[in-house]
Amino acid sequence: MFINILIAVAAIIVVFVIIVAMRPADFRVTRTATISAPAAIVFAQVNDLHKWEAWSPWEKLDPALKRTFEGPIGGNRRHLSWAGNNRSARKHDGHR
Length: 96
What we know:
By secondary structure, the protein is of the alpha+beta class. The protein is built from three helices and three strands. Mean pLDDT is 82; it is low at 90-96.
C-alpha cells in the first residue's frame, strides 16, 4: 500500500515536471483600458506632471503628501518626487 502511494506521488511529480518543462520560458502580462476621451486630451493629462494630482491613485492614499517638480512642465527631462506616508512614498521620472 505504501509503495503504491509513493508510485502515485512520483507519477504526479513527473507529470508536473513534464508540463512545466513544456511551457515557454517567458511570459507576457498585458492590460488594456478604454478611455472615452480623445487621445490628445488624455496625453495632456499624463504629460504634465502638475495635473497628476487630479487622477493619480497615490493622491488618495496620502492627501498631505508633498510634491517636488523639476524640469519642464511637459516632455522629456521632467521629474516628480513626493514624500508622504509609507503607502504613498514613491518617485516617478518623466523620462521616456
